[in-house]
Amino acid sequence: MSNPGNPVETTLEQVFREEYGRIISTLIRTSGSFDLAEEALQEAFTSAASTWGRDGAPRNPGAWLTTVAHRKLLDAVRRDKTRTDKQAEIEYETNRLHSFAEPDLPDDSVEYPDDRLRLIFTCCHPSLSREAQVALTLRTLGGLTTTEIAHAFLLPETTLAQRLVRAKQKIRLARIPYEIPSLEIISERLLAVQAVIYLIFNEGYAASAGQSLVRNDLCTEAIRLGRVLCELLPNEPENIGLLALMLLQHSRSAARVNDRGELVTLEEQDRSLWNREEIAEGVRMVETALALGKAGNYQIQAAIAAVHAEAKSADETDWRQIVALYEELMRTTSSPVVALNHAAAVAMSEGFERGLSLIESAPAKGALENYYLYHASRADLLRRLNRKDEAAEAYHQALSLTTNTVEQNYIRRRLLEL
């Protein structure tokens, strides 16, 4: 799919982006196998490239691909039937697949069930490690290749491939159910899903390592997954809050690095580069979520991002409102990072000395000793207070804790200025 001038390839790329997660989730349910589903769908796309090139694309390409992929699954089962003695098991699988497969290509009105919610909860099952949850979510729901995911997280491709294999084996051997959790535990399980999506976004928004600060491919994929989650569970306010938060943060991406590839802090950013469409959508979603009357962590963080987004300049930022929102957030979470952000907001609202005092007297300060932004925030306040030697020491500590080249170069510039 490399020739944008080819209408068939263009259609296939669009269908891949829009339908991959929906189709693969249905195939996994009917086959009971991640690998078989992926192989069948890949073969279906290969068939589409030749068939659509000859006959033209169908009006319901998603249904066409789903049906063809089901046929590929049946073919795979039949091939296994000739190579194995497990006759009863193979016949069972064949009958199960036949019960869902359509005998003919569908007409344009056929709609297949949406199993993506099952897939999301399976990929983010608590029995899997967080690293496995992220990799499996991107591979199945996102349709990213193993190479693309490994590149995004700066991992050897073999490491990422092994991680995916182990995750799929764990699902099979532990008999992790392919289902939507019961009402009693769905809220708890949903927290893991939201955390995985936000982790993907954060790795794109502020890359933990490498030459780039922002990886827009991961940000875009996380936002797309956030939209899927809102589509599947539209009345869950924290889903809306999460999507709003990602949109509002992503709206600043173009201004976070200058033409020389240097980091630009929020205070110094050219706000004309901010994406006003994402800001407008994000603000609307914050208002929608909060109106549901169940304010949660993502909604409050999104409200904070909205206050920043609506300020025409750094000087016009309503820091008192941001402080109040962080205080509300601290009531719902005991995160040391939230306490650090609250202290930074207090510094801008009530004075640098007050903010620095909060940072240095924080009960959870020890938990932040290995956190790059703790030392960077402390250094910034010391710099503003003209305590240069202490600021330099804090910047050196921050420098030793970040592996992102853009952030390292920013700290070195600050050290030179001192």
What is the compact description of this entry?
The protein starts with 6 loop residues before the first helix and ends with a helix. The chain has helices at 7-31, 34-55, 61-81, 87-98, 116-123, 130-140, 146-152, 157-173, 186-205, 216-232, 237-250, 276-291, 297-310, 319-332, 336-350, 352-360, 372-384, 388-399, 405-417, and strands at residues 209-210, 403-404.
Write structural notes for this entry.
- With 418 residues, this protein is mainly α.
- It folds into five domains: 7-111; 115-234, no CATH class; 240-310, no CATH class; 318-358, no CATH class; 369-418.
- Helices cover 67% and strands 1% of the residues.
- The chain is built from 19 helices and two strands.
- It has a two-stranded parallel ribbon.
- The chain is elongated and about 75 Å long.
Q: Provide the gyration radius in Å.
A: 25 Å
Structural class: mainly alpha
Listing every helix as H and every strand as E from the N terminus to the C terminus, the arrangement reads: HHHHHHHHHEHHHHHHHHHEH
Count of spatially separate domains: 5
What's the total helix number? 19
Distance between the termini: 51 Å
- Rough outline: elongated
Low-confidence stretches: 98-110
Query: Percentage of helical residues?
Result: 55-70%
